[in-house]
Design brief:
The complex is a heterodimer of chains A (216) and B (242).
Chain A: H1 9-33, E1 55-60, E2 63-69, H2 75-86, E3 97-99, E4 103-106, E5 112-113, E6 116-117, E7 146-149, E8 162-165, E9 177-184, H3 186-189, E10 209-212
Antiparallel strand pairs in A: 1-2, 1-10, 2-9, 3-4, 4-8, 5-6, 7-8, 7-9
Chain B: H1 2-13, H2 20-25, E1 30-34, E2 42-46, E3 50-52, E4 58-61, H3 65-79, H4 84-89, E5 94-103, E6 106-107, E7 110-113, E8 118-122, H5 130-145, H6 152-156, H7 195-208, H8 210-216, H9 221-237
Parallel strand pairs in B: 2-5, 5-8
Antiparallel strand pairs in B: 1-2, 3-4, 4-5, 5-6, 7-8
Helix pairs in contact in B: 5-7, 7-8, 7-9
Classes of the chains: A alpha+beta (216), B alpha+beta (242).
Chain lengths: 216, 242
C-alpha cells in the first residue's frame, strides 16, 4: 500500500509561486509581442462624416486610421491622392521611412510596395501620373496627425509619397503640401515599426488597404 | 542577393540622428535656434558635430552656447539687411550655425546651397572678416539663382586682357581677404581667384563698406565697371538691397 505523502507548507507556497510565475511569464510575453493590444479601435458605423468623399480609411496592422482630406487647401494634390487610392495603388505600400514619435512615410508605389521592396531605389519611385506642383500654405501648421505629400529637396516634385506627422513640426510649415489630417487612429500610427538606427526601416510595416470612405 | 544584403548592412551601419530637420535638409544633429523672424529666415544650430556631402567631405562642429549667443546678434543684424521677398528669390530660408566649418579639409566661412535653401555659417570664422563673409556667401546664392544676370564671362571681360583667373577658388594661393590699398581692378587678393569670388568680394564690400568702395572706384576704372555691373544686377532683383 502506497502511503500518501502530504506536501509541506513551504512546498505548497513554492508550487503556487511557480504557477503564478508561469502565468506572469506567458501573459507578459503575449503583451510584449502584441503591440496592438491596447490600441483603441474605431467603429466607423457610429461616426457621421459630413463629407465622406473626402474621408479615407487606411487599414494597417493595428487597425483603421481615418484621414480627412483638404481639397480646399491643396486641390491638385488631394485629387492625385484620391486617384491613387481609387486605383488601390497604396495597398501594400511600406512605411519605409519612420522616425520614432516624429513621422511615418509611405507611398512609394514603384519601389516601396511590400511585394517589391527595392532598398537601393526606395523613395525615388514614380506613380506614372507625373510630378505635381507644390501647393504650399504658409498658414498651415503641421500638428500631430497632419498628412503631407513628400517631395525631393526641390519643390514641385510631389508625386505619390506621403507622410503623417506624429507630433507638431513647426519647421514643416511652408515646406510641404498639406493634404489632410488624421481624425482617428493617431495612436495606431505610433505603433508602426521604426528603424533600429537609421531613418529607413528594414522589414517595415505596410498599408493593408487605403480606401475612400464613400466615393461620389 | 549579396547586393541586397550589403544594402541592408549599409542601412544598419550608417546611422545618423534622423529627425524631422534631417528629413528636410539632409543635415544631421540640428535644432531650431530661432524660428520666427521678420524676413522668414529660420536659424538652426548644430547641437552635435556633423559630416555631410560626398565622402563626408564637409564637416562642422557643434556650436557652444556662449559663442553662439555672442555671434548670433551679428549674424542676425547682417541677414536682416535682406527682406523675405529677396531671400525667396535667392532661395535662402535656413541658416545653419556651427563651428569650424571645413570642405575637403579646407577651412571656409560658409557653404551656400540653393537647392536646399540653406547657408551653413562658421561662427568661429575670423572676426575681422566675419560680417563681410556672410554677405560674400549670400552673393554666391544670388549668383546661383541669377546666372544670366551675373554672367561670369561678361564680368571677366572688364579685367585687363592679360589677366587670368585661376581654375578654381581653392586652386590658387590668392586667399588674402584684406582690402588692397592699390586696388588695380581687384579689392582683395582673393578677388583674383575666380570671377564668382571677385563678384562676391565686391558685393560683400558694398554691403559692409559702401562709402569706401564708392571712393575707391573713382580712381579705378576697371573696378568702377565691376561695381556698376554688380549694382545694376542686384537692382534687377531688388531695389532695396544696395
Amino acid at each position: 500500500m502506497i502511503k500518501a505523502i502530504k506536501a509541506s507548507k513551504s512546498e505548497k507556497v513554492l508550487f503556487i509561486f511557480l504557477v503564478v510565475l508561469a502565468i506572469f511569464t506567458f501573459s507578459s510575453f503575449y503583451i510584449l509581442k502584441n503591440k496592438c493590444l491596447f490600441v483603441e479601435k474605431v467603429n466607423l458605423d457610429k461616426i457621421n462624416f459630413p463629407n465622406p468623399e473626402n474621408v479615407v480609411v487606411m487599414n494597417i496592422e493595428c487597425g483603421d486610421v481615418i484621414i480627412e482630406l483638404f481639397p480646399d487647401i491643396s486641390p491638385q494634390s488631394v485629387k492625385r491622392f484620391k486617384i491613387l487610392i481609387e486605383n488601390k495603388k497604396y495597398d501594400g505600400s511600406a512605411f519605409y521611412k519612420v522616425v520614432e514619435k516624429t513621422f511615418v512615410q509611405a507611398g512609394d508605389i514603384e519601389f516601396g510596395n511590400i511585394d517589391n521592396l527595392d532598398y537601393s531605389k526606395i523613395g525615388s519611385g514614380k506613380s506614372g501620373l507625373g510630378i505635381l506642383k507644390s501647393e504650399i500654405s504658409d498658414e498651415f501648421n503641421f500638428i500631430a496627425g497632419s498628412v503631407g505629400l513628400a517631395r525631393s529637396t526641390k519643390f514641385d516634385t510631389e508625386d505619390s509619397e506621403f507622410f503623417i506627422t506624429l507630433k507638431e513640426i513647426p519647421i514643416y510649415q511652408g515646406e510641404y503640401t498639406p493634404i489632410g489630417k488624421v481624425i482617428y487612429g493617431l495612436d495606431i500610427l505610433s505603433k508602426i515599426k521604426i528603424g533600429n538606427k537609421g531613418i529607413y526601416v528594414l522589414r517595415p510595416d505596410y498599408i493593408n488597404t487605403l480606401r475612400i470612405l464613400r466615393s461620389n | 542577393m549579396k547586393i541586397l544584403f550589403l544594402i541592408i548592412i549599409f542601412f544598419q551601419i550608417t546611422h545618423v540622428n534622423a529627425d524631422e530637420i534631417y528629413n528636410l535638409l539632409k543635415i544631421p544633429n540640428l535644432e531650431v535656434y530661432k524660428f520666427k523672424n521678420d524676413n522668414n529666415i529660420r536659424y538652426l544650430n548644430s547641437k552635435k558635430n556633423f559630416k555631410i556631402g560626398v565622402n563626408d567631405n564637409i564637416s562642422c562642429n557643434k556650436s557652444y552656447p556662449k559663442n553662439l549667443s555672442n555671434k548670433f546678434p551679428i549674424i542676425q543684424k547682417n541677414i536682416n539687411f535682406y527682406n523675405s521677398t529677396f531671400l525667396n528669390k535667392i532661395n535662402l530660408r535656413y541658416i545653419v550655425l556651427c563651428e569650424d566649418l571645413f570642405v575637403s579639409k579646407i577651412n571656409t566661412g560658409g557653404i551656400p546651397d540653393t537647392e536646399k535653401r540653406t547657408l551653413i555659417l562658421d561662427i568661429n570664422f575670423n572676426v575681422k572678416y566675419f560680417e563681410r563673409m556672410i554677405h560674400h556667401e549670400i552673393f554666391h546664392m544670388i549668383q546661383k539663382s541669377n546666372t544670366e544676370i551675373f554672367d561670369e564671362s561678361r564680368f571677366s571681360s572688364f579685367n585687363d586682357v592679360n589677366f587670368k583667373y585661376a581654375e578654381c577658388s581653392t586652386c590658387s594661393d590668392r586667399l588674402n581677404l584684406d582690402l588692397y590699398n592699390d586696388t588695380n581692378g581687384f579689392l582683395t587678393e582673393y578677388s583674383k581667384s575666380i570671377a564668382s569670388e571677385d563678384m562676391a568680394e565686391i558685393f560683400s564690400f558694398l554691403m559692409t563698406d559702401k562709402i569706401n568702395i564708392e571712393a575707391l572706384i573713382k580712381k579705378d576704372k576697371i573696378l568702377e565697371k565691376k561695381v556698376t555691373f554688380i549694382k545694376s544686377g542686384i537692382l534687377k532683383i531688388d531695389k532695396n538691397i544696395l
